[in-house]
UniProtKB/TrEMBL annotation:
InterPro entries: LytR/CpsA/Psr_C. Gene3D superfamilies: 3.30.70.2390. Residues 68-90 are annotated as: Disordered. Pfam families: LytR_C (PF13399). Residues 93-183 form the LytR/CpsA/Psr regulator C-terminal domain. Residues 68-77 have a biased composition (Polar residues). This is LytR C-terminal domain-containing protein.
Length: 214
């Protein structure tokens, strides 16, 4: 047995020369690692592609673009819309007391009869109280509760040119037409109807907000 023969080999194997066999790692393990890495990469690509398809079909890209656009837009408000006014009452819903503050007799009844023809309800007809008798220099005074300031009084005002509007602390909804020294007659029915139509017309629509993007 040669001295170079490892013990226990029984002389079956001989080692000759100066080269020895080297231990090599299994190629299977390396291939397994490469396979795992490749699988992970493939799954990542598939997932990314799926997300892209979802965005295309659901419009996700458009939403993102819209969101981006909004961040660069400033809104310029136009004219603020005026609060919607309460609907005006019709003449038939308004009760008018016609009071004469002049020295001319019969003026209250004549005026009341004409207002009745135009659809107004007539309440008291007679002379004005001492507070106003012979003290109204203009065509007349339209007097009523504060709640009538933007409802009944403007409607009654279409019947008389240059009448002064006032409010008091009365209860109820009746209004007074106090005839003054400057009164000659009510507006013509055509002129009164035209004024009433203009009064009832809706206000023009307010300008909408404008967007400026940069």
């Amino acid at each position: 047995m040669s001295m170079l023969t490892p013990p226990g080999m029984g002389g079956k194997y001989r080692i000759t020369g100066d080269k020895y066999p080297r231990m090599r790692r299994s190629r299977r393990r390396g291939r397994l690692v490469l396979g795992v890495v490749a699988s992970v990469a493939a799954l990542s690509l598939v997932g990314w592609g799926t997300l892209q398809l979802i965005d295309v079909f659901t419009g996700g890209g458009d939403q993102a673009s819209a969101a981006g656009s909004r961040t660069n837009c400033t809104t310029k408000a136009g004219a603020s819309p005026s609060p919607s006014a309460a609907p005006l009452p019709r003449p038939g819903q308004i009760t008018v007391n016609v009071l004469n503050a002049t020295a001319r007799g019969g003026l209250a009844k004549k005026t009341a009869d004409e207002l009745k023809k135009r659809g107004f309800k007539i309440g008291d007809v007679g002379n004005a109280t001492a507070t106003y008798d012979k003290k109204v220099k203009g065509t007349g005074i339209l007097l009523g509760p504060s709640t009538a300031l933007k409802t009944s009084l403007p409607v009654l005002g279409t019947q008389l040119v240059s009448a002064e509007t006032r409010t008091d602390t009365r209860k109820g909804t009746e209004v007074d037409l106090i005839i003054g020294n400057g009164f000659k007659s009510l507006n013509s029915k055509a002129a009164a109807d035209k004024a009433l139509t203009a009064l009832s017309a809706p206000a023009p629509a307010a300008t909408g907000a404008k967007k400026s993007c940069g």
